[in-house]
Amino acid sequence: MENKELEIESHPWQPFIPDGAKVLIMGTFPP
């Protein structure tokens, strides 16, 4: 199985990462 092109995911929302952001933390944190 050989893919010459990367598979692009489509997302329903616009990107929400602010300009200048260096680290994006996603997930849940314990209290």
The count of helical stretches stands at 0
Give the strand tally: 0
What share of residues is helical?
under 10%
Structural class: little secondary structure
Q: Could you please describe the fold and organization of this structure?
A:
The protein is largely without helices or strands. Helices cover 0% and strands 0% of the residues. The termini are far apart. The mean pLDDT is 69.
Short description:
With 31 residues, the chain is low in regular secondary structure. It contains no helices and no strands. The N and C termini lie far apart (44 Å).
What descriptors fit this protein?
31 residues
Write the layout of secondary structure elements.
Layout: no helix or strand
